[in-house]
Design goal:
Shape: globular
CATH class: Mainly Alpha
Order of helices and strands: HHEEHHHHHHH
Number of domains: 1
CATH topology: Arp2/3 complex 21 kDa subunit ARPC3
Radius of gyration: 17 Å
Largest sheet: 2 strands, antiparallel
C-alpha cells in the first residue's frame, strides 16, 4: 500500500531544469519585439509553448520564477524592464495574468481530457482570463493615476491589437509542441 507521501508527485532535478529553462525562454521571448503597427513581444508564445510542453503546473512555476527574477531587479521583462514598478505598473496585470493560464489549462484538460481541441480551448480560455485580469488591473492603475477611462478604450489599447498576434503565437506553439512534445518528459 502506498503512503500519502508516495502518491504526491515530486519535482525532480530534470523538472527543475525544464522549469528554469522555461523561465529563461520567457525572458528571452519578452526581449524579442516584433515591429509592426502595434509592436508585440513573444512572451505569450513562450507561455503557450511551456504549457503545451511541460503541462500547466510546471509552466506556471516557470512563470512564477520569471516574475520573481524580474521583481528582484533582473531585466527580464519586455524592453529589458525590471522591478516591482513594472509589475505594479499599468501593464503588470498582464504579466501576473500569465500565472492563471497554466492552472486553467490543467483544470480543463483534467476535466475534459487531453485531446487537441480541449487543449486549444484551454489555451484560449487561459488567454481570455489573462486579458481580463490585465485589463482590470490596467483600468484600476490608469484611473488611479490619470482619470476615468472606458472599458472599450482600454480594450482598444491593450487587447484588440494583440488578438491576432496572440492567435498566431498560440498556433505556432501548438504546432511546435505537437512536433517536439514527445521528446520532453512531462
Amino acid at each position: 500500500m502506498m503512503t500519502n507521501t508516495e502518491n504526491k508527485k515530486k519535482i525532480g532535478t530534470i523538472d527543475m531544469a525544464y522549469i528554469a529553462i522555461g523561465a529563461v525562454l520567457i525572458a528571452i521571448c519578452s526581449w524579442i519585439s516584433i515591429p509592426v503597427v502595434v509592436p508585440f513581444t513573444l512572451q505569450t508564445f513562450a507561455v503557450f509553448l511551456l504549457i503545451m510542453l511541460l503541462g500547466g503546473m510546471k509552466a506556471t512555476i516557470s512563470v512564477a520564477v520569471y516574475i520573481l527574477v524580474g521583481a528582484v531587479g533582473v531585466p527580464v521583462f519586455a524592453g529589458f524592464g525590471a522591478g516591482l514598478g513594472v509589475l505594479f505598473g499599468k501593464t503588470g496585470g498582464y504579466i501576473i495574468g500569465f500565472l492563471l493560464m497554466g492552472p486553467i489549462f490543467s483544470l480543463m484538460t483534467k476535466l475534459f481530457g487531453k485531446k487537441l481541441l480541449v487543449q486549444i480551448i484551454a489555451l484560449v480560455t487561459g488567454l481570455l482570463v489573462c486579458y481580463a485580469f490585465g485589463t482590470a488591473w490596467f483600468m484600476y492603475i490608469y484611473m488611479r493615476d490619470t482619470g476615468d477611462v472606458g472599458l472599450m478604450t482600454v480594450l482598444s489599447w491593450c487587447v484588440f491589437p494583440y488578438i491576432i498576434p496572440d492567435a498566431v503565437k498560440m498556433a505556432v506553439a501548438v504546432l511546435i509542441s505537437r512536433k517536439f512534445g514527445g521528446r520532453i518528459r512531462r
